[in-house]
Amino acid sequence: MKRLEELKSEYEIVGDVRGIGLMLAAEFVKSKETKEPAPKVRDYIVQDCFENGLLLLPAGDSVIRIIPPLTINIDNLNAGLDIFANAVKKAATEFKIH
């Protein structure tokens, strides 16, 4: 959750992060002020992550569910979060939302 919160504070496209335990979600928006959903941004991130070996679940209008297995080790968890963070950074640049 800490790494997702860092992404939220760094990027305008991350409108909210929430969850409990290992079931987390990140919501993508066009603006934190308006909270307008950004489904194209979400889809871009899901596709980029998939192409880099991370499978995520889209949900709702512009949310990504992150549900790793309960048996995940810290190295794999960090590798997945690195892929996700890189995709968010690329999406912010691609859609010019900072």
DSSP strand (E) fraction? 15-25%
Average pLDDT over all residues: 95
Total count of strands: 4
Largest sheet: 4 strands, antiparallel
Q: Output the number of helix runs.
A: 3
Strand order of the largest sheet: 1-2-4-3
Show unreliable segments: none
Based on CA atoms alone, the radius of gyration comes out at: 12 Å
> Which term fits the overall shape?
globular
Oligomeric state, counting identical vs distinct chains: single chain
Defining traits:
3 helices, 20% strand, single chain, 98 residues
What does this structure look like?
- This protein is α+β, with helices and mostly antiparallel strands and 98 residues long.
- It is 44% helix and 20% strand.
- It contains 3 helices and 4 strands, in the order αββαββα.
- A 4-stranded antiparallel β-sheet has the order 1-2-4-3.
- Strand 3 and strand 4 (63-66) form a beta hairpin.
- The longest helix is centred in the last third of the chain and has 21 residues, at 74-94.
- The chain is globular, with a radius of gyration of 12 Å.
- The mean pLDDT is 95.
Summary, kept brief:
By secondary structure, the protein is of the alpha+beta class. It contains 3 helices and 4 strands.
Topology:
Layout: H1 2-10, E1 14-20, E2 23-28, H2 39-51, E3 57-59, E4 63-66, H3 74-94
Antiparallel strand pairs: 1-2, 2-4, 3-4
Helix pairs in contact: 2-3
